[in-house]
Amino acid sequence: MSSLTTPEPLAISLKGVSKVYRLHGSQGDQLIDVLGLQKFGLNPKTPPKEFAALSNISIEVPRGHRIGIVGRNGAGKTTLLKLICGNFSPSEGEIEVNGQVQALMSVGLGFHPEYTGRENVAAALQYNGLNRSEYEEAIKGIIEFCELGDFLDQPFKTYSLGMQARLMFAAATAIKPDILIVDEVLGAGDAYFVAKSKARVERMIEAGCTMLLVSHSMQQVLELCDEAIWLENGAIKMRGESLLVVKAYEESLHGQMKALVDLEIDDESSNGVLYDTNEGKSLGSHSDRNVSAKYSERYPAPAGLNLQIPSFLPHHLNPLFPPFEINEVKKLRHVARGGISRWDSEVGIKVTGFAIQTERGFENKLRTLRPAKFVLHLSAEISANFACSYGIIFNDSMGAISARIWSPSDTFEIKEGENRVVEMVLNPVQLGPGEYTIGICVIQTTPIELVNTAKRYDLLGRSFSCTVEMDETLSSTSANFIHTAEWNF
């Protein structure tokens, strides 16, 4: 006997939906006619046109799903949300929405600027037909959530964008809608507000609420959404797991970015087959090494220097990593979900291999307060002199940047087809426990404040992954980052 799987009930269904706007043509300018400037082409008369904001969109959103919608300005994101809200009617296709919808389409929309925050909230709740007890409970929850204090009784127009966003989000989510639609409102909030909003959204999702979030903040999409839809030119370019869609979108968005800075390059050469940076010392056998060096123990420090607990001094010890043959780092190891996301870059130097070493060998399972080595294998696409800086970016599981590490300038001469190896050692790892994605970039050396406009030779965004663990004995000191400190008494 075969079992049938019951399909998930749908909150939103769009079938072949298109939205076409009619753009009126220009009839010319009377002043230009009077001045006789038509001969200069300043008075064109253009016919009316049609603009397809959305073209043949089909989407099914099951109840309780959190979906982010990403895309450039003009991609059709807001039009899609307004169709779902019922503000517009589609030119073609069918839209079915099952449940009560609350929409936050822009900061301030629907709130009267002259009314106080309390008065605006009261009006918003009355529109939703709450009885007296429900109204009083909702008001109490909104006041607690938005944390505006005395500002709640000040005119809404005096609020900052962040304060307006907090009040609007609190009001929209106080009545527990079936479908919550958010368009960029969270972008006005700080990290604390986003964290509170995420906790509230998660509770709503557990209760069966569905959320659609439009945002240009990829970090917010990763934090708040399990799935994402990428819109481009009014059509669905990609739909899938948030991380995979964000990686593909970022690669497309920034892949065509070209350099604005052109700096002169000085050089030096290097070569070698067996690569080891332990100052040429004999390492002995792997089993002979103290691979479990306790960074959590107190090491000697300069006289009079009181270190934090757990006690460690960065770069105090010389960690010993197993030597490796150059062929061992010619491949890309530890690839993240969704594979390599290589952004469009200039011809020059490309990352052709990546590996992470601990004192046990190649692995991407690191320990807080233990050393780790990141090895880049580079290949030259042309013969030239280069001055390169290398960047390694760590993003946590929510997409937030945990660390961005830049190298000093590496100047060298290299021929087409030749290779170069670059190492970055964390001595020790100070990231807290968790899952991380890793991005790597190679740029032309430039002042740190200009790195975003520097000539880029390669960029692999969120393309690798690692796990950081912490000894159980240090669990009470667990944090996102283990900072060093000097204490004086």
Summarize, please.
By secondary structure, this protein is α+β, with helices and mostly antiparallel strands. Helices cover 19% and strands 32% of the residues. It has helices spanning 30-35, 77-85, 117-127, 132-146, 161-174, 191-206, 218-224, 242-254, and strands spanning 10-23, 49-62, 66-70, 92-97, 101-104, 179-183, 210-214, 227-232, 235-241, 274-275, 306-307, 324-325, 349-358, 361-362, 365-367, 372-380, 384-396, 401-406, 410-414, 419-426, 434-444, 456-469, 486-487.
Shape: globular
The fraction of residues in strands falls at 25-35%
Largest sheet: 6 strands, mixed
End-to-end separation: 76 Å
Order of strands across the biggest sheet? Answer: 5-6-7-3-8-9
What is the count of DSSP helices, taking H or I runs of 4+ residues?
Answer: 8
Based on secondary structure, the structural category is alpha+beta
Arithmetic mean of pLDDT: 81
Strand segment tally:
23
Helix content: 10-25%
Are there runs of 5+ residues with pLDDT below 50, and where? 256-298
